Amino acid sequence: MERAGKEKDPVVNFAPIVAKVHDIATKELCDEVFYGVRSTERQRDLSLQSRFHFWTAVGLRAPRSLSLALEQAGLGVDPMVPKLTVALGSFFERCKTLHYGFFMALYHRIVDRLEEETDGPYAREMQGLKKHFTTVGI
Predict the structure, then answer these.
(1) For the segment 64-81, what is each residue's pLDDT rounded down to a tens digit?
(2) Which of 32, 92, 104, 110 has the most Cβ atoms closer than 10 angstroms to its Cβ?
(3) pTM for this one?
């Protein structure tokens, strides 16, 4: 699909918010979330914090393949991702079996902390609508 003009795509600088989110997602917070959510899960070689940083980098950089992203993470070439020392196969197997509740809980803790540390929620004037749209975050 072609664009109706020769406008350039806007450049969005995510660096400040990514840095803030990385500051919030400390090892302590990730461990607290992990042990608060787990029932039978064990903390393995790859921590929740390492997974969080890996998937954040994947979302921002959109690598050609996940295998390539994991290989680069193993080499420690990406400053956003701690050096990973797990086998490719075991990483993907673990991703398939790790319950989404870990990331959901971490997400909520990060959002709560962001709201505490900022001037409040975005679109404050629309906060009254939250009671009608309980599953939408503003």
Answers:
(1) 888 888 888 888 888 878
(2) 110
(3) 0.71
CA 127, CA 2: separation in Å to the nearest integer?
37
CB atoms inside a 10 Å sphere around CB 56: 17
Please state, in angstroms and rounded to a whole number, the distance separating the CA atoms of residues 31 and 5: 49
Q: Is the dihedral of CA 44, 50, 52, 55 positive or negative?
A: negative
Could you tell me if 37 and 105 are in contact, meaning their C-beta atoms sit under 8 angstroms apart? yes
Residue 80's closest CA among 62, 56, 102, 49?
A: 56
Residues of the chain with pLDDT under 70: 1-5, 43-45, 119-124, 136-138
Longest C-alpha distance within the chain, in Å? 55
